[in-house]
Amino acid sequence: MSLVITGGHLINPDTGTSEALDLLIEGENIVKIGRGLKGDETLDATGLVVCPGLVDIQVHFREP
């Protein structure tokens, strides 16, 4: 089963990519990045950012 995320603004710091591209995922792996990709399911990410997980390194875990 494959999933294509379309219409999102793809940001990849490893490659310096920052543009609107599609992302093809098969299983747990990103298989292809490009335009006009096809898959079993499609997720429309128009107006959203697609990027690796963001982590807040300034978070404080404590009671208020």
Notes on the structure:
This protein starts with a strand and ends in a 14-residue tail after the last strand. By secondary structure, it is mainly β. Strand 4 and strand 5 form a beta hairpin. The radius of gyration is 15 Å and the shape is elongated. The protein has no helices and seven strands. A four-stranded mixed sheet has the order 5-4-1-6, with no helix packed on it. A three-stranded mixed sheet has the order 3-2-7, with no helix packed on it.
What does the secondary structure layout of this molecule look like, with pairings?
Elements: E1 2-6, E2 9-12, E3 17-20, E4 22-26, E5 29-34, E6 41-44, E7 49-50
Parallel strand pairs: 1-6, 2-7
Antiparallel strand pairs: 1-4, 2-3, 4-5
Write the element-wise H/E pattern from the N-terminal end onward: EEEEEEE
How many individual β-strands? Answer: 7
- The count of helical stretches stands at 0
Largest sheet: 4 strands, mixed
Features:
mainly beta
Task: Give a quick precis of the structure.
By secondary structure, this protein is mainly β. The protein is built from no helices and 7 strands.
